[in-house]
Amino acid sequence: MVFIPIILFVLGAVFGSFACCQTWRLRNRDKSKRSHCQKCSYQLTWYDNLPIISWVLLKGKCRKCSHRIGVTELLSEIFLGLTFASSFIFWPFAPSDPSAGLNGLAVAEFAVFLALLIGLTVLFIYDARWGELPIKPLIYCVACAVIWVLLHQAGHIVSNSFSPNNMVELLGALLVLPLLYYFLYKLSNEQWVGSGDWILCIPLALVLGNFWLAFFCLFTSNLLGCLAAIPTLTKKHKTPQHKIHFGPFLILGFLVVFLSQNLIYQLFYFY
Ligand SMILES: [Zn+2]
Q1: 73: CA distance to ligand 1 center in Å?
Q2: Which class for 266: exposed (0-12), middle (13-18), buried (19 or more C-beta within 10 A)?
């Protein structure tokens, strides 16, 4: 069992590298299949593409022209590696059901969650870098979340724990996150939140599936966003265009709340 988080970390690091490449492809509308240096177009070989290891060995520089690759590549590999591994360690749903059908469903549910994490990482990097949430990865995340909800509810049906109440709770989550953000977006004329933020809230709310968890996600994201904003607020010269890009904080808040949901339930006695 101890090997699974290690394997997931490596897998996450590989997909972290992939996610980072995807952001460049989306940005430059670059159709080339293989990764290359942004400056000299040197095509990376397999040994330049080993996640984390290659970056450390090359000290974050291109092998050919020594152009700095940037720390984002390394950070996204570590981030997704850790997220994959901790998703397994802190997975909030009990997998130990005797029914084999449910186990298959549980594995599929976990795999779709990992697929969602890859999409969220693309959005995280893109928003942190350029302050936008592109529509393609947003649609991908919504699709992953819908499949995840179907698998999750199918698991409830198989284990006879399905209740129509689940759908009411799902609706509650959608009311707190996407709908609230949509109103903020419309009311503020894109000043407080961007157009992508409310769409990003849809997959997050679907997977959280509960009014209170969505509320906690909102609270945690805002708290993280405020903490990150403190250094910029103390600066004397405020640039008018400077605003906090909220996508990464929503994603971080979502991860924290999703993986600690059992603890939240215990602490606040929602059930
Ligand atoms: Zn180069």
Answers
A1: 15
A2: exposed
